[in-house]
């Protein structure tokens, strides 16, 4: 058989809320058995230490904590539906999500795939309690029960298209589910499979049955193969594994807990009783599994036995194992059973054993078996080549093979053979192998449906990361792959894990800090790249980023290579060595071009591509190159010629910054032909250029008018008539270089507007660009009117960011968020990481592969999602021994016609405050009876309080409505608003986008309905 890899695990068992706690429980031989919780059943009412009808001989069992807790908002399940769901469905949903995350995948990545779901389940006590209370059976109660729904819920909420089925073979159910999942993978029916088992004990029925059958242990504890063994103790729990073909898991670089080598299933057939174990069938199924796995019995180091602790069951199982292992007395096979820790988890027993075996192989240690100190002498284990595990067994080097048995009470037997994962999983082939990647600092990301859920999960991640050291790069890389898909996006940068843990805790503790680093962008993000112009340069600009970021280094080197034939020396070296000559025009312009080009290309490689472009004067060259106006080599030649020709111009000119608009300067420029407007940066930010004496005269006049001025330190009078001597020679180069139309929307500072489609940035454009006024303020205002959500300034410092803040806001009134990958002389990879984090928080989706070097792109298991526990859904009370019906039913949603006292008795399960996942604007005060009736109907159908229903809540996405609930809503509305009697489903469906849309539609319908119709309120 082709091997199958176990790549993800999650579970909840008595005394063990997760897989880590489960392993800890096993290693310390912990006891998960305790008294029956008061909310399950009143154990004393059903207890009798002596045989009696309708009674159990124990008040103990293995029970999980908080089985009523369910984060329904996470899965967009309405409170009413959540209250009707079998807790086994709820537990499986959350456990499946966490197991997929544990496999290193964002669960939403599986949406639409042929992923299979296979659930083993034996008990359906929730249905016994609620489907027999006929007066309270609703559509939600119907779909909230049934074996099939345990698997189908997972497929539905994760949008999985593969096989989805539940299996009931009693105690072997979940191992049979694994067997079926393995088969589906081997046949190619699916590429991923979720296999699970679940059991929740809600009534004493099986405890009574075990007692009446003579199978129940008085202390509620299984004692597998022990001299103390005296029967079964009940247990419960849920476990989920994610399976893949081993070859696929290795190809994708996934971490592997263990490998399933072979599985087999058979049946007892007609034996000495339908509930009696059959030694011959058991030994046959074990042998079949060995053959499928291609192993000999002597290869098996240990076996996780079924091990119920009943006299007959242990005897038959020992005999079946002995048939295969009796010849290895010198090196007996180790035997244990997790039932000694948990009790018999019935439908979940097989998955509990599978997870134990997988973790044992993963940690290369097999935990001791509880109650193994005194073997049952009647089993003659030594003579059968078997020994009980009295102490942990360390697995040596090399491949270790293990067995796992699970036998059903009705005679369906299953056995699996597992082995350790390959010692060195080959690194998957990288699409950019040999290409420099990485930005120098890790970015940790996390998403959740609400701010409170973000905070809760930050604490969980901080706790997990502080408990075991991990490289920040691997943590960040895996967070971007696994913790995605929800509305609220959190992101911070960190150079090391200690810093990351500190930031996570600080944000969890401070709501303002949490809000700063969390985004909830709705709609499409639009990004504008701004390229900085001359004057922003400084020695060693971006040197820190070049040192830390291989990705930026790659593109600055690329620009330098293109410039070198035209500059005669390395611009890159000039920049990085801190050479003061970077301020000379011949070097400043190509240096700024190189930096702008490298930053633009770096962001492009990171998946951040501009929707809009704007460059300030010389910055427009990098913008045009990025827009495809000309190739890098042509742009490099043109900018190098521009800088060199300007440098050769005689000195004597100057530039004057004026805090005034261009119209205010007209009278001061009148009569000064040697000076003019060079740059318009904003409504009251203008730069004059020209003859130095003329500028000084203008400055004096402006000073008299109390207009502030500042003489700029420049080598030449740029964008003035003093540039004209270089234009002819520059025009020759520009004609040779050429230039076409832009491939992206580019806002021209030559024209102060968006370039038209097909409008070329040719030689004439670039010649005029040298001499004419830079209309940055006009171009920036036009760009803001286009509605970018973010501006990203690409240059050595965020000069344009402050300028653009002074430009009047766009017509929509919303200014874009400003992002700067480089913030100044001290900038390193951390600033680029912060910029990337900000853009991701704002709704963009970077290519995170480029953000990390290959050494960091390795799997690391992050703590799985921490679900909320504040919402509780349970029966009205514990089961009691009395003649009246044991349970009156579910807590119902409030009825709008009920009085306050009645509503308090029948209200939906406690939900403190408005649900964090449903944060909306406050709804306006009801102004009409239609609104009152409609909101009450929505609340009744979904189980919400009317005060929770805001106008922007979406019925499907936020309130969890489905087709059944829509039909019920329609019926309730028609009953109370007769004007809607002719309303069809087709009329209603398009109006269900939000609560507000529905209310508007209903008010309109009622207004045009019969005028003599009176509203019915019951």
Please provide a written account of the structure.
The chain starts with a strand and ends in an 11-residue tail after the last helix. The protein is elongated. An eleven-stranded mixed β-sheet has the order 5-4-6-7-1-8-15-14-9-10-12, sandwiched between helices. A six-stranded mixed β-sheet has the order 26-25-20-19-27-28, with helices on both faces. Helix 32 (about 930-940) packs antiparallel against helix 33 (about 965-975). The longest helix has 21 residues, at about 585-605. The chain has 35 helices and 28 strands. About 35% of the residues lie in helices and about 15% in strands. It is α/β, with parallel strands linked by helices and about 1000 residues long. The model is unreliable at about 885-925 and about 1010-1018 (pLDDT under 50).
Average of pLDDT = 91
- Percent of residues in helices comes to 25-40%
Give me the side-by-side strand order of the main sheet: 5-4-6-7-1-8-15-14-9-10-12
Low-confidence stretches: 883-926, 1011-1018
CA-based shape: elongated
Q: Tell me the fraction of residues in β-strands, as a range.
A: 5-15%
Q: What can be said about the biggest beta sheet?
A: 11 strands, mixed
């Amino acid at each position: 058989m082709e091997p199958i890899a176990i790549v993800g695990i999650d579970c909840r068992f008595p005394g063990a809320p997760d897989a880590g706690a489960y392993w800890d429980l096993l290693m310390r031989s912990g006891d998960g058995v305790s008294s029956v919780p008061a909310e399950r059943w009143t154990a004393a009412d059903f207890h009798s230490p002596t045989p009696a009808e309708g009674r159990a001989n124990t008040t103990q069992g293995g029970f999980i904590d908080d089985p009523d807790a369910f984060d329904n908002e996470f899965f967009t399940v309405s409170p009413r539906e959540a209250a009707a769901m079998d807790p086994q469905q709820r537990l499986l949903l959350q456990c499946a999500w966490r197991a997929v995350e544990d496999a290193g995948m964002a669960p939403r990545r599986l949406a639409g795939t042929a992923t299979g779901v296979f659930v083993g389940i034996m008990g359906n006590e929730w249905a016994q309690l609620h489907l027999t209370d006929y007066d309270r059976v609703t559509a939600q109660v119907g779909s909230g029960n049934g074996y099939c729904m345990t698997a189908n819920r997972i497929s539905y909420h994760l949008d999985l298209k593969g096989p989805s089925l539940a299996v009931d073979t009693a105690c072997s159910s979940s191992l049979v589910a694994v067997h079926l999942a393995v088969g589906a993978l081997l046949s190619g029916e699916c590429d991923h499979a979720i296999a699970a088992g679940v059991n929740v004990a809600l009534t004493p029925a099986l405890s009574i049955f075990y007692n009446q059958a003579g199978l129940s242990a008085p202390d509620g504890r299984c004692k597998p193969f022990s001299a103390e063994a005296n029967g079964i103790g009940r247990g419960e729990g849920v476990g989920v594994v994610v399976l893949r073909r081993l070859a696929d898991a290795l190809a994708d670089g996934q971490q592997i807990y263990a490998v399933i080598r072979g599985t087999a299933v058979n049946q007892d057939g007609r034996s000495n009783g339908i509930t009696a174990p059959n030694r011959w069938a058991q030994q046959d199924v074990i042998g079949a599994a060995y053959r499928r796995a291609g192993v000999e019995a002597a290869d098996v180091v240990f076996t996780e036995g079924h091990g119920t602790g009943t006299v007959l069951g242990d005897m038959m199982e020992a005999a079946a194992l002995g048939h295969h292992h009796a010849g290895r007395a010198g090196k007996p096979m180790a035997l244990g059973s997790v039932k000694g820790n948990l009790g018999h988890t019935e439908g979940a027993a097989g998955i509990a054993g599978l997870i134990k075996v997988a973790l044992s192989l993963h940690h290369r240690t097999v935990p001791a078996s509880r109650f193994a100190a005194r073997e049952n002498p009647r089993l003659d284990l030594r003579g059968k080549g078997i020994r009980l595990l009295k102490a942990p067994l360390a697995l040596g080097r090399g491949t270790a093979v293990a067995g796992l048995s699970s036998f059903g009470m009705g005679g369906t037997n299953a056995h699996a053979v597992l082995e350790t994962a390959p010692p060195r999983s080959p690194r998957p082939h990288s699409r950019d192998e040999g290409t420099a990647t990485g930005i120098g600092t890790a970015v940790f990301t996390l998403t959740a449906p609400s701010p409170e859920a973000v905070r809760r999960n930050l604490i969980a991640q901080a706790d997990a990361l502080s408990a075991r050291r991990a490289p920040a790069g691997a943590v960040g890389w895996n967070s971007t792959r696994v913790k995605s898909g929800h509305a609220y996006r959190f992101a911070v940068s960190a150079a090391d894990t200690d810093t990351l843990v500190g930031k996570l805790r600080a944000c969890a503790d401070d709501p303002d800090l949490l809000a700063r680093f969390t985004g909830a962008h709705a709609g499409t993000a639009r990004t504008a790249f701004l390229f900085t112009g001359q004057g922003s340069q400084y020695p060693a600009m971006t040197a820190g980023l070049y040192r830390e970021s291989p990705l930026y280094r790659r593109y600055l080197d690329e620009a330098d290579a293109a410039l070198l034939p035209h500059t005669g020396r390395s611009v890159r070296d000039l920049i990085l060595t801190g050479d003061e000559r970077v301020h000379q025009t011949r070097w400043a312009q190509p240096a700024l071009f190189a930096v702008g080009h490298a930053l633009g290309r770096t962001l492009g490689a990171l998946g951040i591509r501009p929707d809009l472009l704007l460059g300030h004067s010389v910055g427009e060259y990098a913008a045009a190159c990025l827009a495809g106006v000309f190739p890098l080599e042509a742009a490099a030649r043109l900018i190098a010629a521009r800088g060199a020709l300007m440098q050769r111009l005689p000195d004597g000119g100057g530039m004057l910054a004026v805090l005034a608009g261009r119209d205010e300067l007209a009278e001061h420029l009148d009569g000064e032909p040697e000076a003019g407007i060079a740059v318009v940066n904003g409504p009251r930010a203008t730069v004059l250029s020209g003859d130095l004496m003329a500028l000084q005269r203008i400055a004096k006049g402006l000073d008299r008018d109390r207009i502030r001025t500042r003489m700029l330190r420049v080598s030449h009078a740029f964008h003035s008539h003093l540039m004209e001597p270089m234009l002819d020679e520059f025009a020759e180069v520009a004609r040779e270089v050429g230039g076409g139309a832009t491939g992206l929307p580019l806002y021209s500072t030559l024209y102060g507007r968006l370039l038209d489609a097909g409008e070329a940035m040719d030689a004439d454009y670039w010649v005029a660009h040298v001499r004419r006024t830079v209309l940055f303020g006009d171009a920036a205002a036009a760009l803001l009117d286009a509605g970018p959500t973010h501006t990203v300034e690409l240059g050595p410092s965020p000069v344009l960011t402050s300028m653009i803040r002074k430009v009047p806001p766009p017509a929509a009134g919303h200014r874009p968020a400003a992002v700067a990958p480089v913030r100044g002389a001290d900038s390193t990879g951390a600033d680029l990481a912060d910029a990337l984090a900000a853009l991701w928080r704002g709704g963009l989706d970077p290519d995170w592969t480029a953000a990390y070097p290959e050494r960091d792109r390795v799997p690391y298991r992050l703590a799985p999602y921490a679900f909320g526990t504040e919402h509780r859904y349970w029966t009205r009370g514990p089961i009691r021994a009395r003649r009246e019906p044991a349970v009156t039913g579910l807590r119902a949603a409030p009825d709008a016609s009920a009085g306050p006292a009645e509503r308090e008795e029948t209200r939906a399960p406690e939900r403190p405050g408005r649900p964090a996942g449903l944060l909306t604007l406050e709804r306006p005060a009801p102004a009409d009876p239609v609104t009152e009736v409609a909101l009450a109907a929505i609340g009744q159908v979904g189980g919400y309080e009317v005060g929770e229903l805001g106008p922007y809540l979406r019925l499907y996405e936020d309130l969890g409505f489905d087709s059944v609930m829509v039909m019920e809503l329609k019926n309730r509305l028609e009953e109370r608003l007769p004007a809607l009697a002719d309303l069809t489903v087709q009329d209603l469906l398009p109006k269900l986008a939000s609560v507000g849309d529905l209310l508007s539609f209903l008010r309109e319908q009622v207004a045009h309905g019969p005028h003599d119709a009176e509203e019915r309120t019951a």
